[in-house]
Amino acid sequence: MNHEKLDSILEKTFRTEPGYRLSDGFAQKVTSRIVAKNQWMTDLYEYIYLSVLILFLIGVVAGTYYLVNKEVLLQIFKFISGNALQVAMVALILNFILFADRVLLRLLFRSLPQYLQRMGEKVDIQ
Amino acid sequence: MQHFSTDCCQTSSMDDAELINQILNGNMNAFTFLVSRYQKLVVHITGRLIQRQDELEDVCQEVFLKVYQNLGKYRNECKLSTWIATIAYNTSINYLRKFKKGDEVNPDDSAALRNLTDFNSGDYEKTDLHRYIREQIENLPVQYRTVLTLYHLEEFSYQEIEQITGMPEGTVKSYLFRAKALLKEKLKFVVDNNSLKTVKEINNES
Description:
The structure holds two protein chains of two kinds. Helices cover 87% and strands 0% of the residues of chain A. By secondary structure, chain A is an all-alpha fold. Chain A has one domain (29-118). In chain A, helix 2 packs across helix 3 and helix 2 (26-68) packs antiparallel against helix 4 (84-125). The two termini of chain A are 41 Å apart. By secondary structure, chain B is an all-alpha fold. Chain B folds into two domains: 8-99, RNA polymerase sigma factor, region 2, helix turn helix motif (Rna Polymerase Sigma Factor, Chain: A, Orthogonal Bundle); 106-205, Winged helix-like DNA-binding domain superfamily/Winged helix DNA-binding domain (Arc Repressor Mutant, subunit A), CATH 1.10.10. In chain B, 69% of the residues lie in helices and 0% in strands. Chain B contains eleven helices and no strands. Chain B has helices spanning 8-12, 16-24, 28-50, 53-70, 80-99, 109-115, 126-139, 142-153, 158-165, 169-187, 199-205. In chain B, helix 3 (28-50) packs across helix 4, helix 4 (53-70) crosses helix 5 and helix 8 crosses helix 10. The termini of chain B are far apart. Chains A and B meet through helix 1, helix 2 and helix 4 of A and helix 3, helix 4, helix 7, helix 8 and helix 10 of B.
């Protein structure tokens, strides 16, 4: 074999595809992952907007009572300050329920099938 | 934001600029098509660099996630393929730094030569030789594998490889030459005469 022949074999081999492969439907998987990520962000923003809206409405109601009937508002404040821990706990639980409903459960139901599928594929490869 | 239902037949005829426009307008079918169009490029670069089939899919997904996230910043200063190749290269290099031994920052040809295995077939067949060379490419230092893949397999120009890897054009040329020389060194017994330069000679020259 001469140099030219060896060179041509080398060049040809350099142009040969390496044996690395991606799974079928890889493009669709990537897109689904991005869609899921975008959806998670949308859910999170929705939760934040809702929380802000609820706080705003509480503020509006409190303001209205302040103008119309100050006495009721003072009683409410008195109740809250007298039961601060219980009120804080209830508020925290309600907030968590809202967060779970708007973000966590949606994320779980979206990600779990994909996660299980990926785990299955990894097991197949190994 | 996503329009999954739009017909994907339209996307197949789109050029890159139109494809990017569609993606930025929220057409996820266009993004799926972009991934299909460039996944070979990404898998070649990433595969050759990280050399792990089990991690390949995750790294490639990371590459395309970055492509999607940064598509708004893409300016037509270079070809889309060059831009995507840059992301694939950087992601793979970061992966190597994180999960593998520092790999060879400054390739040492003597060490690389030791890494290559001998071709022990007396009466070699062309296909065997072909397979042997392919295996040896995988044993080359990471920079050599990178430039070989980008230049020969993906047919990027020296300037484009410089853009992708950040290596000066001269270095790219040198790596290409030295990679070829290393392989030839191992294959010199198949050549009739002994005029092939050895790696030692090349190193002394440079």
